[in-house]
Amino acid sequence: MRRNKLLCFGVPCLALSLAVGIAAPLLTTLLGGGAVSDSALGAAYVTVLGFLFVVCIVEVISVFKIDDSTFHTALIAGCLFVLYALSVDMDLFLKNFGVDIPLYALGISSELAFALAEACCCWYILFLYRIPISNRSAAIVTVCAMASLMGYSLAVIFGYGYIFHFLLSAIYIIVFCLILERVWAEKNVLFTTYLVTAVFSLAIGVQSVNALSYSGPALPVQGIALAFAVLTFAAFATVYFLFSVHTDLRAVRSDEYKLQARHFETRALTWQIKPHFIFNSLEALRALYHKDIALGDEGLAHLSDFLRGSIRSFDSDLVPFETEIDNIYNYAEFENLKRDGKMEVIFDIDFTEFSVPPFSIQPFVENAFKYSGVEETGGRIVISSYREEDRAVVEISDNGKGFDPSAVSDRSHGIRNACGRFALALGAHPEIKSEPGKGTQVKIVIDINGRGKKV
After folding, report:
1. pLDDT tens for each residue of 1-59
2. Where among 223, 242, 261 does a domain terminate?
């Protein structure tokens, strides 16, 4: 059976907080100290109390702004703030300004805040790990706690309220340890559980000081509650620090997952091109052989060169622009073989220091061949590239029949595929301008300092 690290952490925390909360005021009283207000300690305490108030605000805001946040931590922070606001240190600080609150009122109010804070800690752990609790068990614990709280309220007037406080503390300690035992036995332990355990223990310690001072044999001692308040704030600060680190790591993982998803989607789009192009090429090759065996042989040679030169590109997200131009040249030569009138392909290349997705420009050239009107007038395609500041510009224009760009999604799988790959790989969005009877112009702008940098 594995060792319960939660109890190994929680029990010493509880014991140490309880020991300090009992021994510190009693020893100070026995040694002749206590009931002395130091303005510097008072100012320090008010400062820490201000930090705890900020914690309350942060917790309330997080309930509405953070999806995985719950109201339990806001309740814990609020109850702890009230508890520390009613502590001995605050009482001694207020006496410097002539504010004298009856001890029994402070005692009852602080005990109520303590009881609520500890109940919220238990409730939060039960909620966090989805631990079921029977109605009978909840009723027994509630009745015992309420009886102890009522007993404290009556006994505080006579100076014996601390006895009922320790009875109530014992009930909460037993319940909390049983909860920790269930957590360790059934669930994976979150680090937050250790911090809630620490806060739970600190609340017992500071209220022990309050109970002994307000309704017990000890005199009010300044500085003890300050130490507990600092540790409580440190616990919440640790939670916020770990949450910040976890959020940053989650953001990094999210970016990595998005990058992987973009990679996989790009790969899927690339593989969609393979059958699309090969089927078209085989159909054209068959037509060449039916027309002329010599033309078929020449077409087969061009197709072989094209496939041999491009097969490495299929395994890459990006290729140098020169590689894509070579592929287009081979493709154009192959296409021209099956046409009675040659398509004139002009390469006006002024800039090549950038990358593009493999086979991303070919669909636009293929579209120009398809709608060139070469049988009637002779076709011309101009492929140009140039640099504008930190951007590479690629233009593909033709003097063909043109088409309605709004119909691209319905009529051209290749163009839709190419536009999607440019967007995924480079964040670029090809602009297509075309009118029936006036040809087509495609413009692609690529950031060469970003993902479009030459590979």
Report:
1. 456 777 787 788 888 888 888 887 887 777 665 555 567 788 888 899 999 999 999 88
2. 242
CB 352 within 8 A of CB 320: yes
Which DSSP string corresponds to 86-139? TSHHHHHHHHTTT----HHHHHHHHHHHHHHHHHHHHHHHHHHTT----HHHHH
Residue 298 shares a structural domain with residue 222: no
Whether residue 260 is contained in a domain is answered as no
**Residues 408/356, Cβ–Cβ less than 8 Å:** no
Tens of pLDDT, residue by residue over 114-159, are 999 999 999 999 888 888 888 887 788 788 778 877 888 888 777 7
Residue 364 parent element (H or E):
helix 362-370
* CATH number of the domain residue 376 falls in: 3.30.565.10
Domain end among 206, 224, 242: 242
Same-domain status, 315 and 227: no
Q: Mean pLDDT lowest for which of 65-74, 115-124, 256-265, 428-437? A: 256-265
Q: Rounding to the nearest 10 degrees, give the CA dihedral for residues 24, 28, 31, 35.
A: -170
Considering the domain architecture, whether residues 165 and 21 belong to the same structural domain is answered as yes
Q: Is 360 exposed, middle or buried (0-12, 13-18, 19+ CB in 10 A)?
A: buried
- Dmax over CA atoms of the chain, in Å, equals 117
pLDDT at 187: 61
How does DSSP assign 41-96, residue by residue?
HHHHHHHHHHHHHHHHHHHHHHHHH-TT--HHHHHHHHHHHHHHHTSHHHHHHHHT
* Model pTM above 0.85: no
Q: Are residues 166 and 306 in the same domain?
A: no
Q: Are 36 and 91 in contact, with CB atoms under 8 Å apart?
A: no
In a domain, 284, yes or no: no
Residue 289 corresponds to which amino acid? Y
Sequence letter at residue 104: Y
Relative to beta strand 380-388, strand 344-349 is: parallel
C-alpha distance from residue 421 to each of 244, 272, 315, 408, 451 (Å):
35, 11, 14, 15, 13
Domain count, the chain: 2
Closest among 429, 412, 427, 450 to 262, alpha carbons compared: 427
